[in-house]
Amino acid sequence: MEEKGKNCTKCKEYKTLDNYYFRKDYNKYRGDCKQCVSNTGKAYREANREKRKAQKRKYYLKNRERLIKETSQYKTNKRRTCRLSRTKYLVSKSLRRYITGGKSKRAKECIGCTWEELLIHLAGTFEANYGIPREYMKNFELHIDHIKPLASASSEEEIYELNHYTNLQYLMASDNLSKGSSSNWSI
Predict the structure, then answer these.
(1) Chain-wide mean pLDDT for the chain?
(2) Boundaries of every domain in the chain
(3) Were both Cys, which of 72, 107, 123, 138 would link to 98 (CB 3.0–4.6 Å)?
(4) How many Cβ atoms sit within 10 Å of the Cβ of residue 98?
């Protein structure tokens, strides 16, 4: 039994119907295949990067209060309903307190070293990453970054492993923000 298909209007290749999006409003399949739709979208986004950035910025500024509220509600709800998200949040909160004051026993166990040892390790990673002596660290806005991102954790055990001091490094804020939750990133 032969599957039904048609020729794509863009690439002119014959493809089965599962390679086309179905239009409910017209009650038929699109003329261009999924791959061509994807390629067209990518080309548009690349050609109009600045325009899209300006539109997003304008939308954000217009809807800032609502977006902040929705994001906050989403995160709160996720922490309530997802055990993994709650653990990530609590561990991160504990680590922040430890790094700023060095008083949390639980964070010390999770990190695997003392507060002073952690600061020495982080300073060493800054020097290794950027080739800039430790004395000049204060001149930069720095973030503590997870080398292997927390987003990759799929269990509570992994969350604790990823917060070990050997997985932490200092990055300049701009580098950390551009890195996001990518694990294959380099300076």
Answers:
(1) 87
(2) 5-54, 87-179
(3) 107
(4) 20
Structure-derived torsion over alpha carbons of residues 86, 91, 94, 100, reported in degrees to the nearest 10: -120
Which residue shows structure tokens 């300073």? 123
Q: How far is CA 158 from CA 91, 107, 167, in A?
A: 12, 15, 12
Asked if 113 and 99 count as a contact pair (C-beta separation under 8 A), the reply is no
> How far is residue 123 from each of residues 14, 81, 85, 101, 134, measured CA to CA in Å?
59, 37, 29, 17, 6
| Average pLDDT score over residue span 8-13 | 95
pLDDT digits (tens, 9 = 90+) for 16-72: 999 999 999 999 999 999 999 999 999 999 999 999 999 999 999 999 999 999 999
Q: How confident is the model at residue 185 (pLDDT cuts 50, 70, 90)?
A: low
Question: What's the rounded Cα separation, in Å, for the pair 34 and 158?
Answer: 37
- pLDDT of residue 97 exceeding 80, the answer is no
Q: How many other CB atoms sit within 10 Å of the CB of residue 20?
A: 20
Contact (Cβ atoms closer than 8 angstroms) between residue 11 and residue 31: no
